[in-house]
Amino acid sequence: MNLEGQERLKSDIIKLKKEKNAVIFAHYYTRPEIQDIADFIGDSLALAQQATRVHADILIMCGVHFMGETMKILCPEKKVLVPDMNAGCSLADSCKAEDLAAFKAQHPDHMVVSYVNTSADVKALTDVVVTSSNAKKIVDQLPADAKIIFGPDYNLGSYINSVTGRNMLLWNGACHVHSRFSLEALLQFKKENPGVEVLAHPECKAVILAQSDVIGSTKALLEHAIQSSAKRFIIATESGILHEMQKACPDKEFIPVPPEVTEGVGCSCNECEYMRMNTLEKVYACLRDEQPEMHVKKETAEKAISSIQRMLEMS
Ligand code: 13P
Ligand code: SF4
Question: Which of 93, 160, 181, 241 is the 20 to 30 A CA-CA neighbour of 272?
């Protein structure tokens, strides 16, 4: 679509959203044009918190499936729409509820702390949900002698173990975007750009985190970029965040770390293809047709809400 068509579609969406008393939420990893039409842009925690505060008939979650589910669980009386039901998450997929249930049965004395990137069924088996923004704060509040299963992100779990001194039992899941950043490229960028700051999401591998100046959620990385006196940054997270960073800091330079290139299948991008499934055309259609609508089984939602609410209380 050309720029003119895009601008027309954006104004049609804005008009329709007012008529229908709808609010659009977008994660930082979505396409720039989606972030531009959103009422709220945020990380997983901020989006969930904001959803409980807005007064609207329709909530549109431009992100991935588990974000829409979390929103529906928190706001059961609202119509929650997602532009594309197929926008999944490789990390959430790495932990199936039946596998977690079997693992729990092998460790009956452990409590379960789950990253928000999980299905509602997994959240229903969880004691407390965390996001990358609040994982340390929440784990720090758990009893010192608590035995804990942490899943599904192995990299985030190891990082939280290292900063809390815990020894949580880690699920071996990963995000396909964050786990493939190239250490070699990062080291090369650092060598070529003295004085640069490296900002990384804790879903990255430990070798990447070890080379980073700041480790945090998308929101924490953005806030750091704004307040830092540095002028150049290397970014080890999904490249969608660069849109807000560049908008907030037009005089600073942001360099995305590329993924490792596997022979034959490597690509030169570091985008989450699920987040990119949110397009202006799909947002417009979903607002017009009021579908696809997110539904969560009542029984699952009733179990999952306590682990999400515990997170909101402990954040
Ligand atoms: P944030 O919680 O930092 O928004 O991250 C969500 C996510 O999907 C990271 O890949
Ligand atoms: Fe999931 Fe990774 Fe995409 Fe985040 S970037 S939504 S963890 S697949």
Answer: 160
Q: Are 232 and 253 in contact (CB under 8 A)?
A: yes
Q: Determine the pLDDT at residue 278.
A: 98
The CATH number assigned to the domain with range 91-176+299-314 reads 3.40.50.10800
Task: Give 235's strand partners.
Answer: 199, 256
The rounded Å distance from CA 65 to ligand 2 centre is 10
User: Global pTM?
Assistant: 0.94
Q: Provide the angle, in degrees to the nearest 10, between the axes of the packed helices 44-51 and 65-74.
A: 30
Q: Which fold has domain 3-87+275-295?
A: Rossmann fold (3.40.50)
Q: Ligand 1 pocket test: pick from 41, 201, 241 the residue with the most ligand atoms within 8 Å of its Cβ.
A: 201
List the residue whose alpha carbon is closest to atom 2 of ligand 2: 175
Q: Given this model, what pLDDT does residue 5 score?
A: 85
Q: What is the pLDDT of residue 253?
A: 96
Parts of the chain with a pLDDT under 50: 263-266, 268
Show me where the domains of the chain are located: 3-87+275-295, 91-176+299-314, 178-256
CA-273 nearest atom, ligand 2: 3
Which residues lie with the beta carbon below 6 Å from any ligand 2 atom? 29, 64, 89-91, 117, 175-178, 238, 272, 274-275
